[in-house]
Amino acid sequence: MPTPSSEAQPQTSKLHTSSGCSTSLASCETGSWSAADLDSIEHHLRMWEKRGPKTWLANTNASKALLHVWLTMQGKTSSTCVKIGNAFLMYQIGLQWWADRPILAEELLFSLDDQPIDMQRVTAFMEETARLHGCAGVAIGTSLVTHDATYSRYLGRYGYATEAHVNYKEVT
Questions:
Q1: Three-class DSSP labels, 70-129
Q2: Which fold has domain 33-156?
Q3: What is the 8-class DSSP label of residue 139?
Q4: Could you give the count of Cα atoms lying within 13 Å of 11 in the half-sphere of its Cβ?
Q5: Hey, where are the domains in the chain?
Q6: How far apart are CA 64 and CA 66, in angstroms?
Q7: 76 Cβ contact list (under 8 Å, min separation 6)
C-alpha cells in the first residue's frame, strides 16, 4: 500500500526510515506497537464502554472493539491502524452510496498518552493518503467527543465542514 511522502507520515511499523517515516500497519508486522500503546488502546476502549460521552457508547463492547483493532493491526480487516505521533488513528477507504469516488473515513482517533494530538499532522496524513488512493474526500466524525459543535469548529480550522448529523435513539 503506498504511503504519503509528507512529514505527516505515521510511525507504525518496522519499516522506519531515518526521517521517521513508515508504512501503515495494514501491510506491516504489529511488533512496532509498544506494550504501552496496546495498553492505552485497551484502556480507552474499556473507558468508553463504561462511561462514554455519548449515549450510544453505553452499547460499546470493548472486547469486540479490541478484537477488531487487533485484527486490523494484522491486516485482516478493511480498516487500517496507524500511529501518528501520539495519535492512534483507525480509518477505512471505500465507496459510499453518495460518492462516485472512494472516501477516507476516520473510524477511531484518540491520544495514546492523554496529551493533545497534533491535529494538523493527523489531517495532513489523512488528506495525503486520500489523494494517493484517489479519494474524493476525508470524513472525520465526532462520535467520541463530548461537544460536537466545539470539535466541529476545531476541525473547521483545517478546512472541514459539518455535512451531516447522526441521531441515535436507544431501543430495548
A1: HHHHCCCCCEEEEEECCEEEEEEEECCCCCCCCEEEEEEEEECCCCCCCHHHHHHHHHHH
A2: Aminopeptidase (3.40.630)
A3: E
A4: 12
A5: 33-156
A6: 5
A7: none
Q: Please report the sign of the dihedral spanned by the C-alpha atoms of residue 4, residue 10, residue 12, residue 16.
A: positive
Other Cβ atoms closer than 10 A to 17: 8
Beta carbons within 10 angstroms of residue 130's beta carbon: 22
Q: Which residue has the higher pLDDT, 103 or 16?
A: 103
CA distance 61 to 155: 28
* Contact between 136 and 102 (Cβ < 8 Å): yes
Cell digits of residue 161: 465542514
Q: Whole-model pTM?
A: 0.75
- Which has more pLDDT, 115 or 46? 115
Give residue 56's pLDDT band: very low, low, confident or very high (50, 70, 90).
low
CA distance 148 to 146: 6
